[in-house]
Hints:
Blueprint: H1 3-7, H2 19-27, H3 37-58, H4 65-75, H5 102-118, H6 124-138, H7 145-159, H8 172-185, H9 189-208, H10 211-217
Amino acid sequence: xxxxxxxxxxxxxxxxxxxxxxxxxxxxxxxxxxxxxxxxxxxxxxxxxxxxxxxxxxxxxxxxxxxxxxxxxxxxxxxxxxxxxxxxxxxxxxxxxxxxxxxxxxxxxxxxxxxxxxxxxxxxxxxxxxxxxxxxxxxxxxxxxxxxxxxxxxxxxxxxxxxxxxxxxxxxxxxxxxxxxxxxxxxxxxxxxxxxxxxxxxxxxxxxxxxxxxxxxx
Length: 218
């Protein structure tokens, strides 16, 4: 399995598609028997959204409202109309946090983009963690907020020279616990530490596959 596929893992909590099946969908363009079309769309869309993120970063574009809307629109192809803010109230399953009403959300998402510019003096890991946590707390879309927030977190990491991270199954509990704690009491530090640990693990994995490291280990 290529490193690229691992990096763009959608990490859906309920997805029944394996990594091998993901490869077949992305590389061989084949559908998987017994899988929901939505699951197939999410994988294909996530690959396209990640490619769009890389393109924007190659052009050295700072994260903006238009880019985030584009990311969400790509993620939602064949699922729902993407890039459009919600006009209904939503709930986040399994958490105590209640997202703002549509009118409150609209004010908060506009403030988010103002703060996105003002908070650029933060260190990269903390800035990426804040971007993710604040966006998903606002929950500006009916669906796809988690996937969008993880991509824009990786956007902030990658444009500053860090590796993109994904949330493996064994890391999901601390990831969700610290993310929910941030939404509940505003304490970003535990979530920042979780992201820092994931980045450290990703870096170790990356270094371990470099040819000079493999030669050294022999």
